[in-house]
Amino acid sequence: MSTETTTAPTPDTGARTPEAAGIISDARRRIDDLDGRIIGLVQERMAVSAVIQRERITSGGRRVNLTREMEILAHYRDQLGRPGTALAMTLLELSRGQI
Question: 83: which residues sit within 8 A by CB, 6+ positions away?
């Protein structure tokens, strides 16, 4: 049994102890850093996709390759489960038509 007393939750973290508030604040800073890196990677993915689309169109092909998109959807689903499919769809949507 813990001897540390609990108080009302802090508005910024919802924690009831200073120790928990510190852990939550540190974890949130890590999440913010990860989110920034993820956004940067998504932007990089969009730029690479634009190169692919531009080259495909220039060579007489279609902007979108549905077979490739299905492979991407399956990959995300296999790695992340059903929510991975929604994530992949969002990435594909962000990357389409950028040229």
Answer: none
Q: What is d(CA 87, CA 98) in angstroms, rounded to the nearest whole number?
A: 18
Within a domain: residue 91? yes
Q: How far apart are alpha carbons 80 and 74 in whole angstroms? A: 10
Is the sign of the CA dihedral 61, 67, 68, 69 positive or negative?
Answer: positive
Neighbours of 90 (CB within 10 A): 12
Instruction: Identify the helix (H) or strand (E) that includes residue 70.
Output: helix 66-80
| Residue 87 confidence (pLDDT) | 98
pTM of the model: 0.81
Whether 91 and 45 have beta carbons less than 8 Å apart is answered as yes
CA 84 to chain centroid: 10
Distance separating alpha carbons of residues 70 and 89, to the nearest angstrom: 10
Q: Per the structure, how many domains does the chain have?
A: 1
The domain that contains 83 carries what CATH number? 1.20.59.10
